[in-house]
Amino acid sequence: MVAPALRRPITADEQRRAERCARGLVIVIDDDAEILAALHALIELEGYACETYASALAYLRALQDGRGRFPGPRCLLCDVKLPELDGLELQRRLATLDDTPVLLMSGASGAPEAVSAFRAGALDFLIKPLDDETLFAAVGRALAASAARQREQARRRDLAARLATLTEREREVARRVARGERNQDIAAALGIALRTVKRHRQQAMHKLGAATLVDLVHLLDAAQGPGTQTL
Amino acid sequence: MIFDARTGFLFVSALHLLIAVALWAVLARRRTLALDLWCGGGAVFAVALLLLSLRPLLPAVLGYTLATLLVIVAALLKLHAIRLELGEPEPVARSIALVLAFLLLYEWLRVDADERLRFFVMMLVVMLLGARIAWSAWRLGRRPGCRSAYWIAVAHGAMVLVQAIRAGNVALGRFPPELMSQGYDALMFAMILLIAVIMANMAWLGLALERLVQAQIAAAAAQARSEETRVLGERIAHLERQRSLGLLSASLGHELKQPLTAVLTNAQLVRRGLAGARLTPDQLLGFVDRIIDNTRRASGIVEQIRGYLRPGSAAVGRVDLGQVVREVSELVAAEARAHGVRLSLELPADPVTVRGDALQLSQVVLNLLRNAIEAAAGHAAFVSVRAVQGDGRALLTVEDGGPGLTPAALQKAGQPFFTTKAGGLGLGLSISRAIAEQHGGTLRLANAPAGGARAELELPSCAEPPAAAG
Lengths: 231, 470
Known about the structure:
The complex is a heterodimer of chains A (231) and B (470).
Chain A: H1 12-23, E1 25-29, H2 33-45, E2 49-53, H3 56-65, E3 74-79, H4 87-97, E4 102-106, H5 111-119, E5 124-127, H6 132-164, H7 168-178, H8 183-190, H9 194-208, H10 213-223
Chain B: H1 5-26, H2 33-53, H3 60-86, H4 92-112, H5 115-141, H6 149-171, H7 184-275, H8 281-309, E1 316-320, H9 321-338, E2 342-346, E3 353-357, H10 358-376, E4 382-390, E5 393-400, H11 407-412, H12 428-438, E6 442-447, E7 453-460
Parallel strand pairs in B: 2-4
Antiparallel strand pairs in B: 1-3, 4-5, 5-7, 6-7
């Protein structure tokens, strides 16, 4: 593939693909070419974008290459039994890389397999041969989960960006306010005037986009949630 | 004169020769050294009798020395024959020494001593040899299946008896010390010689016939046994096939679900496409073709399982070893996947033709592949299969990336009921080895230089008839 030029007109193909990706991208991994081809056609027919890989390693390589993707929710549909790196192991590795929801499928309805799949965080476990209704229901759920995760991430990113605009003093004041300290106490603790505390507080609420004190507490709680840098 | 001994001896001589030649001719197809010696002895005796009967017409050295010598030689030959049959061969040097010693003594007696002593010495030696023949034949007769030898003993015993009577008569002075005398004892002597030669040779023939019958019975029994072993072996091989497929059944089920999944997905695709008129007819046809192909693929797998489970009756023909490997690797593909093992085949484009039973050979290949997959699982997870043909041999090598075999396991592998696997029967490799040997080949186990185990199946290849030119 040729490296994309910096400014390039967007082709109609890319346009369509971007539209599909906006609906959702399903990444299918199976070592059977016939199954890959059939699932690819079926998923595209439903208006989703679809990428197929013959092995888990091929997918991981593609992931490392870091090819640009159109934005949109995505999920992984992966066979449990694959050569070299099986579906469960892939799921374990992916859990540390990104939070794409994983749907596992298997020809065997072995309970132990399903149990370890769910334990490793699989969103669903599909038994081959796949029923299309079941498949699309699962894909729909997985994409919804992905969209929710992406929204959440975007919100956190946004919040983090906003937090970054606060000055050291404003951040300290906001933290103390959220903890429930009174303005007078904050002024005493920091050795600054009460007026200055009020100004910092208003400035912080403005920058963070919090209308009320409750909003501020919520925002700071969310910012301290898992996966984001603490204040 | 009631009987001319010379005529009688001449007659007996001719009979001896005739019977010796006839017996030898009858048994010539299964001749042994013992038979040659026995018939040779008969012929020599015939010559001796001829010389004896012509004694008055011949110089003394022929009529006496040579004739007597030939009698001794004939008796020794017969003794050797009997002792060979008995399985206790007479030392040749002893016989030669005896002949030389007798010759010296006889010549000395003939020239210097008196006629009676010479006669008695000769009679004594002949009687002792005859008695030894009779005793050996009697011992032979006691063996199972050699009862005819009793009659040889009886015939020679009778001759010894007649000679004893003759010697007694001579000692008492009733007859001159001369073999060719006229009278009732010469008649008796000739008659006994006549009866004895017939009886002894008939007995020898009987011995040979008994042997023949016994050999046939033994051969029939051996054939029955080998047939039984073969049938049993086939049954065991069949059971082993069932067992190994049973062990594969989980992964075979998975293997079968792959084409079924493709079929179902394509069918649903077609239905959705038709329902919304969202697919072009060309696209629909393509998906229907996928359905057809995958249905064939599924039924092919079922067919292979069924073919593999058919009870094995050896159907020998030309078999392409490469094809066998391809088919079997489809059977174990799912197993390999389940263990995360990569299976790589290196097969020549031309068929690797051997002569044998495709089913049995596929059993061997399945066994080797399954062992290799199990060994490689969790280690360097690869199994490579190579087939080459050359020099009139076809060689199939299965190498795995497992830990290899310990020296003890290498030595014991292939023995029935030796196994390194929990739950294994330890029959697979021994059956495989038996099949390889039945095909005139070998199955060797070794460790590859890289460390894994390597199995080599070598079979005589069945070269393609040269392709017709143009």
